[in-house]
Amino acid sequence: MFSPAVLGKTPRARAPFGKAQPLMIPYKGLNARSPFSTMGSEYAIALNNVLVETYGLRCRKGWQKWATGLPGTTPVKTIMHYFPATAVPAPSTAKMPLQFSDYMVVTPRATHAPSPGKLFAAKGGFVYDVTAGGPGPWVAQSGISGLTDFWHTCNLQNIAGAFLIATNEGGGYAIYNGANWVTPTQGTAVGQIEGCDPALFCYVIT
């Protein structure tokens, strides 16, 4: 049943050509600021369809349509979010399952609630309020226009209130004050821009 070992027929052990190296999960998420040479393994340089949560990383569980039937055939180019300090996120109705593994892999998200504040979509030369979601109907917002559908935005709050400031890559400047869009003009009066034409603005940052 067993043969005696023969030196000439016994295969020699091969030298290892590699070594398993355990790597830390990038639990701190994406780092687009630090140089790669000094970045620790707890950071990721790219995350696709991955969400950072309290106990580690979780794969995105899919997507769902929010607003459908917007006029025109061109795609939405910009999503603008008006988020004042008074806006409070709606509490989630999803229940935490007992098994941690189920929470990370299996359990679906609850139906998404409307975004706190306001949500605007730019397409076809118009801007639409899509906060409520669904099939519409959708009416273009007045007081805002641009040469393209690409907008740069930022939220700004001061003693006068909360504002969403938007500038267009093709030129244009508009402010949402929580109720209406306003297009400031050049001048010295209250609400006007002094020293330059706001119609030429193309980028905004705070």
**Widest β-sheet, arrangement of strands:** 6-7-8-9
Shape: elongated
Helical segment count: 1
Q: Main beta sheet: strand number and arrangement?
A: 4 strands, antiparallel
Proportion of beta-strand residues: 15-25%
| Rg on CA atoms, Å | 27 Å
Question: What does this protein structure show overall?
Answer:
With 206 residues, the protein is mostly beta strands. The chain folds into 2 domains: 1-60, no CATH class; 64-206, no CATH class. It is built from 1 helix and 9 strands; from the N terminus they run βββαββββββ. The chain has one helix spanning 100-105, and strands at residues 50-53, 56-59, 78-82, 118-123, 126-129, 151-158, 161-168, 173-176, 181-182. The chain has a 4-stranded antiparallel beta sheet with strand order 6-7-8-9, with no helix packed on it. Strand 8 (173-176) and strand 9 form a beta hairpin. The longest helix is centred in the middle third of the chain and has 6 residues, at 100-105. Mean pLDDT is 80; it is low at 92-106.
Task: Give a brief outline of the structure.
With 206 residues, the protein is mainly beta. Helices cover 3% and strands 22% of the residues.
Map the helices and strands.
Layout: E1 50-53, E2 56-59, E3 78-82, H1 100-105, E4 118-123, E5 126-129, E6 151-158, E7 161-168, E8 173-176, E9 181-182
Antiparallel strand pairs: 1-2, 3-4, 4-5, 6-7, 7-8, 8-9
